[in-house]
Design goal:
383 residues, alpha+beta, six-stranded antiparallel beta barrel, four-stranded antiparallel beta sheet, 5 helices, 29% helix
Length: 383
């Protein structure tokens, strides 16, 4: 009986150990089936159905005369010299505002009307001074004639001359003040004195900010409007470190915005800032060849710069794929097997990408259409 108990225990232990061992072997097998070995992690095998679904095609390294196409991006800004802050020469109350934010205006257009009694006083002073000057002129001429015949003293004539000169200077000063605030003195008389002056646009452009409202009292130092002259539009473009030596002042470029990428405008590089920022890029400043309403301050823009061409080796763009900041192509090994190979790329255009030191790809069949699908399969396989 004791022997039977030992036998039963031994049999149970053996079965338990066998079961555990089998479970570990099974887990090991599953793990090995899902984990890649170093040899096949860059290779993928397709079925005939997968090849047909992808529409996979192959190509080979080609000799081509290629232009380097540098793509830049940045923002449209306005040169400080073309942003104007408009104020009133003299204080007063805002009677009316004739524009809104973002509205277009023409040079000389009335932006706002300011009203104040001091405008009346200034015109009155001018007319009074003008009348006094005429009287002083007549008196001076009379005293000059009398002095010639010694009928009046030199002192009297000199006093008349000084009065005339003083009033003449005062009148010229008042005339200039009235001109600055937009009142023409040539047609000014007692019947058309006015209490309002107009604030005129100094150029043709757009309203960026309105900083006042109707009825507000303004001082001469207060800014009423911020105006933008579109002729001062500049394009601030980021140039990556690898492309800095290819971007130079005077180069013609094509620019476009994200909303209308098909509509490209001509521009020219006017300066390149000779320093690399923390982000690994320099700044190039470009200016549109002609004013274009499609581009406004603060808009994100893109640019293309074509660099001089050279004869080199390349592959169609769709044959080259990128993963984790590195570039690859897929070699067709035959029998529906494909291997991912790292490559170093150079210049690129709309159709082809240059492959640096491409001798090792000579006579190899490279996947063209379907390269990206193969990359996605490898990534999913690795996961």
């Amino acid at each position: 009986m004791h022997f039977k108990n030992i036998s039963l225990y031994s049999l149970t232990l053996i079965l338990t150990l066998s079961s555990c061992s089998g479970k570990k072997e099974e887990e090991k097998t599953v793990y090995e089936n899902t984990k890649f070995t170093e040899n096949n992690k860059n290779s993928v095998h397709l079925t005939d159905k997968q090849i047909q679904s992808i529409g996979l095609t192959t190509t080979s390294i080609q000799n081509r005369n290629m232009e380097k196409l540098v793509r830049l991006n940045g923002k449209a800004e306005i040169a400080p010299s073309h942003i104007n802050s408009v104020s009133s020469i003299m204080g007063g109350h805002i009677k009316s505002i004739n524009v809104i934010n973002g509205s277009h205006f023409n040079k000389g257009q009335v932006l706002a009307v300011v009203e104040d009694p001091q405008f009346i006083q200034l015109q009155q002073d001018y007319l009074v001074t003008k009348a006094q000057l005429e009287a002083a002129r007549l008196n001076f001429n009379r005293q000059k004639d009398l002095n010639t015949s010694k009928a009046s003293s030199d002192k009297t004539m000199q006093t008349a001359q000084a009065d005339y000169a003083t009033l003449n200077a005062t009148l010229k000063g008042l005339e200039e003040k009235l001109r600055i605030i937009g009142i023409n003195t040539k047609g000014l008389h007692t019947g058309n004195i006015r209490s309002r002056i107009s604030i005129h646009a100094p150029f043709t452009g757009f309203v960026s900010k309105i900083l006042v409202n109707n009825g507000q009292y303004i001082n001469p130092a207060d800014t009423l409007f911020e105006l933008i002259n579109p002729a001062g539009l500049l394009l601030e473009l980021k140039v990556f470190e690898n492309d800095v030596n290819d971007i130079q002042t005077g180069q013609e470029i094509l620019v476009y915005n994200n909303q209308n990428p098909e509509l490209k405008s001509n521009a020219k590089i006017v300066s390149v800032v000779p320093s690399i920022e923390n982000g690994g890029s320099a700044t190039a400043i470009a200016k549109l060849s002609s004013v274009n309403a499609e581009f406004v301050k603060g808009m994100y823009i893109n640019a293309e710069v074509k660099i001089s061409s050279r004869y080199t080796h390349g592959l169609p763009n769709e044959a080259v794929v990128s993963y984790e900041n590195k570039n690859y192509v897929f070699e067709d090994l035959g029998k529906s097997n494909y291997k991912m190979i790292p490559v170093v790329t150079g210049i690129s255009d709309d159709q082809f990408t240059e492959i640096i030191k491409s001798d090792f790809l000579k006579d190899k069949k490279i996947v063209q259409k379907g390269a990206y699908s193969l990359l996605m399969m490898l990534k999913n396989k690795a996961e």
